Amino acid sequence: MVRPALILHGGAGARRDRNYDREVVHMREVVEAMKARLEAGAPALDIAVETVVMLEDSGLYVAGRGASPNLDGEYELDASIMDGETQKAGAVAVLQGFRNPVVAARAVMDKTPHVMLAGDGAARFAKAQNLEPVTDPESWFTRAGHGEDNHPPGTLSHGTVGVCVLDNQGRLAAATSTAGVFGKMPGRVGDTPIPAAGTWADGEAAVSCTGQGEYFIRVAAAARTALAVGAGQPLQQAAQATIDRIGQMGGDGGLIALDRKGHIADPFNSQGMKRAWLDTDGNIVVRVFNN
Fold first, then answer.
1. CA distance 103 to 144
2. What does each C-alpha distance from 25 to 21, 67, 177, 286 come to in angstroms?
3. Could you tell me the pLDDT band of residue 150, with boundaries at 50, 70 and 90?
């Protein structure tokens, strides 16, 4: 038996002039709930979905209920999930009309031969799977991230949620969900629904990214980190190198990562990144800033 571990994020881009007490309390509640599930033997893949559903439904983060609309006033959501044991993956992009894109991503992985469905095709698939719809977008969505980031108008202001999980059988999984950058063009797709860019899990490490997705795509951030770990690099070093590279290109954000030994990494180059974790000793830590 392996001692389980978990790390989640509620997005990079946190600002020191904002209060995150609600998010801190909520992230702790989520980790405590998932700690009980992991101790009961739940598999990493199920925990990944359950964690992200709790983050999506809270309305506190720029994913799920916390989404902001695109330039046309529509809510387009993205998510992906990856199973480290099998390296199977599922994703949805530009999904409209459904409450939990991560559940749709899991269904794509489990019930189709594909990895990603997008737009109207993703919505029709979600409806066929009887996933929970959003019937009144204006009353459902909370626009959680307004005013959070510190980017000037016209730049890629962002928000995301994600999780990496190690279960007591040594299995790794990762999942990520987002409404994308604020004020995005209709049809824009960032790194979140793209395995290798925004989400990755294999037998060595699991990774979930948050930030300006265009940069994370260009460096295949999630896979880059995990593959470096597989090549023998320590997790923290591999994760930091990825964020350093994104910073050198002019991008910002962060990532969370977890390896098969339960080591945790959480580098970011924005002011803050909302995150919480359960370590292999059973300790729970919640942070927004580094100090």
1. 21
2. 6, 20, 20, 9
3. very low
The CA distance from 171 to 127, in Å, is: 30
Q: Which residues contact 280 (CB under 8 A, 6 or more apart)?
A: 3, 4, 5, 166, 262
Look up residue 158 and give its two tokens: 């962002």
- Which tokens is 142 given? 């909370």
Taking the model in full, what pTM does it have? Answer: 0.95
**What kind and span of H or E run contains 58?**
helix 44-58
Is 160 a catalytic site residue? yes
Question: How much helix, strand and coil, in percent to the nearest 5, is found in the chain?
Answer: 30, 25, 45
Tokens of 261: 């030994």
Whole-number average pLDDT of the chain: 94
Helix (H, G, I), strand (E, B), or coil: what is residue 42? coil
pLDDT digits (tens, 9 = 90+) for 68-107: 889 999 999 999 999 999 999 999 999 999 999 999 999 9
One DSSP character per residue, 114-149 reads: -SEEEHHHHHHHHHHTTPPB-S-HHHH---TTTTTS
C-alpha to C-alpha distance for 258 and 250, rounded to whole angstroms: 26
Judge contact between 45 and 83, C-beta under 8 A.
yes
Element spanning 106, H or E: helix 101-111
Choosing from 112, 135, 155, 160, the catalytic residue is 160
Q: Write the DSSP string, 7-37.
A: EEEEEEEE-TTS--HHHHHHHHHHHHHHHHH
Contacts of 139 (CB under 8 A, 6+ apart): none
